[in-house]
Design goal:
This protein is 51% helix and 18% strand. It has 87 residues and is α/β, with parallel strands linked by helices. The chain has a single domain, classed as Rossmann fold (3-Layer(aba) Sandwich). A three-stranded parallel sheet has the order 1-2-3, covered by helices on one side. Helix 2 links the parallel strand 1 and strand 2. It starts with a helix and ends with a helix.
């Protein structure tokens, strides 16, 4: 499974970037070379604090705060559309 994943590298965005379990998963994915890029969503300072506490290196991981993103309205509309079509 790992060798197949390495052949077809993908981008991945994970919510709740400050959660220890999310950070541990991110560390495994980046270290394993299974992705072309990894983005964690959340407040950057909070993610950095938890990562430091958990001993997780954020090198190679993109941090994005959707609360202050210039695309916030676009994200909200897309989320709303998803809710409409899954109900």
């Amino acid at each position: 499974m790992h060798s197949k994943a390495k052949e077809d590298l993908r981008k991945l965005v994970l919510p709740e970037g400050a959660e220890p379990r999310t950070l541990k998963a991110a560390k495994i994915l980046v270290k394993g070379g299974l992705l072309s890029s990894l983005t964690l969503l959340g407040r950057e300072e909070e993610i950095r604090q938890v990562a430091q506490k958990e001993g997780c290196d954020l090198k190679g991981i993109i941090l994005k705060n959707p609360e202050i993103s210039e695309r916030r309205d676009e994200f909200a509309q897309e989320y709303f559309n998803c809710l409409l079509y899954t109900s």
